[in-house]
Design goal:
This protein is α+β, with helices and mostly antiparallel strands. Helix content is 31%, strand content 19%. The chain has 15 helices and 17 strands. β7 and β8 form a beta hairpin. The structure holds D-malate and zinc ion.
Length: 449
Amino acid sequence: MTGGEVSGALLREFASVVGDAHVLTGDATAGYAVDWTGRFRGHAPAVLRPADTGEVAAVLGLCREAGVPVVPQGGNTGLVGGGVPNHGEVVLSLARLDRLGPVDADAAQVTAGAGVSLQRVADADPALDLGVLIASRGSATAGGAIATNAGGLRVLRYGPMRAQVRGVTAVLADGTVVSHLAGLVKDNTGYDYPGLLAGSEGTLAVVTAARIQLVPRPAGLVTVIIGLGGPGEAHELAREALRTVRGLLSAEYFTRAGLDVLAEHAGLVPPLRDPVPAFLLLEAAGPGADDDLAAVAGDRPVAVGTTAADRARLWACRERHPEAAGFLGVPLKLDVSVPAAHWARLASEVGAVARSADPGAQVISYGHVADGNLHVNVVPAAEADGRHEDAVFGFVASLGGSISAEHGIGALKARWLPLARSAQERALFARIRAAFDPDGILNPHVLPR
Ligand code: MLT
Ligand code: ZN
């Protein structure tokens, strides 16, 4: 289903639901039509900003009746073009669903509107934290993080967003509201549709609120950056840390190439004097964290942070990596994962693989080494016509890996889904999708049917 213009009559009907001020058209839609990387630039005939679940339901009912396709949008921090109107869809912004309920201290849970930022969820109670930590947490929203099953910097400890979700309220494409927010830990009463909506990229239903499990706030945090010879050593040390560091929260890889760009363009101060080619950031909490981490580092060059300021300075070296490629051009964000045994080969060879398709391409890689995940950021010199994805995803598939570890399929990877999923699996996806959204109005160009 392709979008385009919507009639004046339909715009007036939208306005009767959400109010004139929350039906945006023309120039007012510009910020909603382009993604964070600048690679995906679409056009929205209208941006609708409902205030609550009832308004979302009414708006979706109108869109379905009129056959108007819809792209749901949270904080618009996605990296695969899944939340912008690439085909002239109406944008349904969930930003105004920003009510955060009281923390249920007994269950360590909170109910958050889809538009609540992850930072607000994390700050809801000083003794508790959100298990998902991503660099865009100030803008990324609960609804968006569920729809994309966001991963991030603490997956090795707490799992991705799906693992934090105890229930949702969601609106189906025909305006039906389904809700299951009791937050019960044990509840075997049928299909786990909140789990199914996590990672569905806005194709099955629109999540409007979620019951989120919080975790005890980690205390006594110690962060180290260890200088290394290359990806093989990073992989080896991360495995060792997983085995020996009791309070391990993060194991993050990045390289001198990315750090040099950030030093030049963002004024970042390199954490080590030694001119090492690769780095492993480890973070751990609790008693003995400093000794455990020191034992992993051994006699390698290491920078240690225990105060909030020092830890923030070290984390900036990793957390600002998503920006690095953007200083060189408009990047392709290729987020891939492979079985643990192949991660070092992936990280060592992927630059050359990308350059075999485009010799002038610049490649910056970083990622979550303990999850077998690598973010391959490619700034093309040649036309971005799919050659880079063909090369990198083909290599990843040959290693038994996935073309999307945590960012989703979106628009960027839709063409390559058959590399990751069989015809039988895709047929099952299509049947699930048809059951939720028979008219195909929800994000029709993402995870293609
Ligand atoms: C990260 O790990 O920094 C995020 O997934 C964002 C990115 O890959 O650029
Ligand atoms: Zn990541």
